[in-house]
Amino acid sequence: MRTKQGLAIALICTVLLLVTGCGNQEKPDNQEAGNSDKPAQLRDVQVMLDWSANTNHTGLYVAKDLGYYEEEGLNVNIVQPGAGGSDALVASGKADFGVSYQEGVTLARTQGVPLVSIAAVIQHNTSGFAAPSDRNIKRAADFEGKAYGAWGSPVEEAVMKSIMEIDNADVSKVQKINIGDADYFTAVKRDIDFAWIFYAWTGIEAKLRGDDLDMIYVKDYSEALDYYTPVLVTSEKLINEDPELVKAFMRATAKGYEYAINEPEEAAALLSKAVPELDKELVLESQKWLSPRYQDDAPRWGEQKESVWKGYAEWMFERNLLDKPLEVNSAYTNEFLPEAQ
User: pTM to 2 decimals?
Assistant: First the structure.
């Protein structure tokens, strides 16, 4: 569940190629087979995850298990991301919906890729830089002289530089070691001092292991870095051609996340049932930590603010991470969220 936002940059070319030829393409090879026992009126819908299944995705699995999607006439398949990533497959029409990040959508939109965010899964950014407590990394200035486990994204270094400058520190004094998708716990024992993680998964796992962790949340340094991660996305084409499908999907999905907010232990059990290879204790503790953070201070689950999209896009543009400014209002919509109860 380590943040994968940086991969979005490498995927833009893939997205553009897929979108260019997306006319009548088949579903990807890793799509689950449709259930022939389902009534004919159920419509097959594919949802592509951004990463291995975890508690960011609980609402999707809840909606599927409790029949919320069937109530809306949908037979939903939840699949792991393919080689091209969820953004590319959703934008090209190979998947109907996907899990992405605000960064990925921002990059895609400024490159002309018709991806739209339709819900914020978590209201505030729960990612940040984490280090074992014996490394004495308490603030961004403490990154100096330490080894950082990187995955090689320009955004990654820009974030680190941004928060270090607030502490009057120099990012060039950080040793960067590319660890790719290596396990955080193995890497900090062997090669690095700190890395960028999602606390809800890796941080909770550290707690269960009995490993003391110092966590520096990026949102605590800059309001612009309190962006939405992850988000649910679909394509402009699906929105324009079948808005009722998008509404039906979001009605059921919102119910799934609302259930996870109100019943974290039961929701964790449903996720563990759907993905039995996950550690049940980790799922439960992660869910209990994350459930109140899905909606947090928003009037309803999934709500997105223009100020959040604008602030992060401007931050990216100022640091030459975007070729041009983002047309913010085309990048996201709250149109398909159910009304607050």
Answer: 0.88
